[in-house]
Amino acid sequence: MTRSPLLPALLLFAVCADGADARKRPPGQPFAATTEIDEHALRDHTRTLSSDAYEGRKPGTAAEEKTVRYIAAEMAKAGLKPGNGADWFQTVPLTQTQLDAGLTMTITGKGAPAPLVSGRDFVAGTKRTTPQATVKGSPIVFAGYGIHAPERGWDDYAGLDVRGKTVLVLVNDPDWRNPVGQGAFGGRAMTYYGRWDYKHDEAARRGAAAVLVIHQEQPAAYPWSVPSSSWAGPQLDRARDDGGASRPVFEGWIAGPAADRLLRSAGMTLAQAEARAGTAGFRGVALPLTMSAASGNAVKQLQSRNVAGLLPGRTRPGEYVLYTAHWDHLGHCPPAPNGDGICNGAVDNASGVAALLTLAKAHAAAGPAARSMLFLAVTGEESGLLGSGYYAAHPLVPLAMTVGGVNMDGLNVIGRTSDVVVVGAGKSELEPMLAAAAARQSRRIEPEPTPEKGYYYRSDHFSFAKLGVPMLDAGSGIDVRGKGKAFGQAAHDDYTAHRYHQPSDEYDENWDWSGAIEDLALYYNIGRQLAMSRAWPNWYPTAEFRAVRDASREGQPAVSAPGKGEAAGRP
Fold first, then answer.
1. Integer distance in angstroms from the first to the last C-alpha of the chain?
2. ∠ CA(121), CA(239), CA(59), 5° rounding?
3. Does the structure show a pLDDT above 60 at 197?
């Protein structure tokens, strides 16, 4: 891995720093110990924001007002100043659409199965703002992985016209079963081409009437319960100048068994279709079926809000270090068997907002650093990184002057770990800073255990990375001290299967916060180091965001990294 000439400076805490913090600490001593992280505040913020009183923090609801007011008030108590001039808030224009309950997709043609039922067989929404969403007699096409990647020699749409058609595509990359590094898309490590939202965008660019990503638990990285809850009820999107006219009428997911039934009409099982689609030179297959569906569409224009708090820098206030966390969750969702119909989002992401507020308080108590520090709680992550995407396009401070940052999306509540995992490792010069800080906690950096799940493209750091800002997404691994890797893996798997995006993601007084506190000490340390130093960490030359950052730092307009499309954060 190529190292930057900046790297020696990045590894020094006091030598490269200026101001009071450098004078107080001998070289090499960390800026913060775990004792400086307020566990009581972490617990209290998480408990409050994930309580039923906040109704799952759905943007555009009465719960939003309560949530953002709480965050702004706590930022003020922590000692921050408003981050948008005299205002704590940045308005984010959104569109909300809601299709009729009980929507079905009628399938006609040779070997046609029974109609597809919403929730059981598929989930779908629309980004169009028309009062009706209708598709009639749309031919169904299987387009493999739905990828157009000429730089990788791959085009699932070669010779395929999908205008007005219903497109079925597989989730993930064609080589996701391969070891890392083997295959056109790098093997297990998912690229953005593997994400469901890229596949929706590509189908939209080609004029599809509908697009459904085939759900399979392993390559999707979560069970069917996750999209079925995430796509229930009103759906949010960024406000579009064309009212969504350039988007498919319906876009969503189709359950694996339902997709298998459709594919059998063309003489192949889902497993056979996946095998064919993973072969270079694959061409799309038309099924002898058509799809029809019609629904009313309740449309509402909303104004949601990001919340921004600023700790102004002492000597270089025009340079910024960024901390981010999303405040939103799913709100009211399909009830669990016990009747609970609120997706409270305690871990995801009341805990991340609690971390943001706790770190803001710790940094303010330490006093201003040389550079300014911006604490940003963003909206709409669960609906497609909407708030962070809007901020990145309309930044409150210049992205070219944003040194780098840390995103927090779900804290470790199962105990201290010996390992730290970097999501999307090998991308930026923030990583050796993390490694040095982790070593001071007697912790080691481990490779991402499931790179095929594409976590780097699933949270708000990606919105900033696309425009060149180095962002770190890292946290506790699974090697829980005194309990081992098997315990940590089982806890992780249990959360994914039984709580993630479900009403059962609730606050638990028995959580062990010791691991979260160690992680926050890392985040504090890295942020403080960046804020006190003169270094400008960059992406490594092989990272897809390097050219964007270089252009930005040269004073050229920052444009999105090539081939990335629109990011989306929900599953």
1. 31
2. 70
3. yes
